[in-house]
Amino acid sequence: MEVLRRLAAGYHDLMDNKSDPRVNDWFLMSSPLPTLAICLTYVFIVKVLGPKLMENRKPFELKNVLIYYNLFQVIFSCWLFYESIVSGWFTSYSFRCQPVDYSRSPLAMRMAKGCWWYYFSKFTEFFDTIFFVMRKKFDHVSKLHVIHHGIMPMSVWFGVKFTPGGHSTFFGMLNTFVHIVMYSYYLLAAMGPKVQKYLWWKKYLTALQMVQFVLVFAHAFQLLFIDCDYPRAFVWWIGMHAVLFYYLFSDFYKQAYIKKTKKKQMKLNIERMNAVKSESKEMKLPLLNGFSNGSGLGDVRQRMAGAVASQ
Q: 286 and 159, same structural domain?
C-alpha cells in the first residue's frame, strides 16, 4: 500500500507542480487518461468493431466525404504550419537550441495554443482509418497505420502538458508541412480516375515522410552534445519517436515499393521465358511432324532420286 501511495503522490506532484500551469485547465489537459481512453477506443473500433460491423455490408461510397475531409485537413495543416512559423520557427526560434518560453507573452501563448491545436489534429486524423474501414479497404489498416495514428495523440499530449513550445515543436512544424503535401495527394486521389493517373509520386511522399523523421532525429539528439535549457527527457521522447516511425515507414516503403517492384519484374521475366519457350516449341513442331516417323525423310529421298533419274 505504501508503494501505491508514493506512486500516487509522485503522479499528482508531476501533473500539478511540474507541468505547465498555463494549459492545466485546457480541454483534455488535466489528465492523460481521457486521451489514453480515446486512443484505445480508436484501436478497438478500427481493428475489431468496425470490420465486424462491415463484414456483411457493402462498402460505403464516400467520394464527396473524402474530398471535403481531405480539403479540411489541407487547410488545417496549412494553418498549423503558419502558426508554428509566426510563433517561432523561421522568426525568433533557434534551430540549435530553443528553450520553452513559459511566459504569458502573446507569442509564447500563441505557440502553446498552436501546440494544443496540433494535439487536437491527431484526433481528426483518426478518420483516415475509419474511412478505410467503411470502404472495406482493410489491407490499408496496416500495422504502421494503426500504430502511427494510435500513439500520436498520447505522445503529443505530454508535449503540450509539459513543453508547449521550444525545441520539440520543430517536429510539429515539419509534420504539418508533410501533412499539407500528404492530404493534397489524398484530395487529388479522391477526385477519381481522371486525376489519379497523374499521381505517380506516391512513393516519393513516403520518402518525404522518412526524410522528416531523419531531420527530427538529428534535430532532437543534437541537444545531447550541447548545453541547452531544455528537458533532457523530451529530447529522448521525440528522438526515439523519430527512430520508431522511421523504422515503420522504411519497412512499409520496402514492402510497398522495392519488394513489389522486384516481384513484378520477376513475374514479367517468367512470362517472357514462357513466351520464348512457347515460340521455340512452335518452331520445332514442323520438323517433328515431318521426320519423327521416317516418312518425311523417305519422301525427300524419293524426290531426290526422281530428280537424278530425270537428268
A: no
Residue type, 220: A
All three cell numbers of 103, joined, read: 511566459
Cβ neighbour number for residue 263 with a 10 Å cutoff: 10
Q: Are 59 and 135 in contact (CB under 8 A)?
A: yes
Asked whether residue 285 is assigned to any structural domain, the reply reads yes
The answer to whether position 260 is within a domain reads no
Q: Is the pLDDT of residue 281 over 70?
A: no
Q: How many CB atoms lie within 10 A of CB 179?
A: 22
Q: Are 115 and 31 in contact (CB under 8 A)?
A: no
Tens-place pLDDT, residues 231-265:
998 899 899 988 988 888 888 778 877 766 665 66
Split into its structural domains, the chain has a count of: 2
Residues 293 and 169 in one domain: no
Distance CA 79, CA 118 (A): 10
Q: Quick check: 158 and 233 in contact, CB under 8 A?
A: no
Stretch 109-115: mean pLDDT:
95
Q: Which of 145, 148, 179, 219 is catalytic?
A: 148
The C-alpha atoms of residue 100 and residue 111 are separated, in whole angstroms, by 10
Whether 246 and 284 map to the same domain: the answer is: no
Looking at the fold, whether 296 and 204 belong to one and the same domain comes out as: no
The alpha carbon of 249 is separated from its chain's Cα centroid by a whole number of angstroms, namely: 6
* 45 lies in the same domain as 129: yes
As a whole number of angstroms, the distance between CA 93 and CA 174 comes to 14
What average pLDDT does the segment 4-13 reach?
83
Residue 288: domain span: 268-310
User: Is 148 designated active site?
Assistant: yes
- Residue 91 DSSP one-character state: T
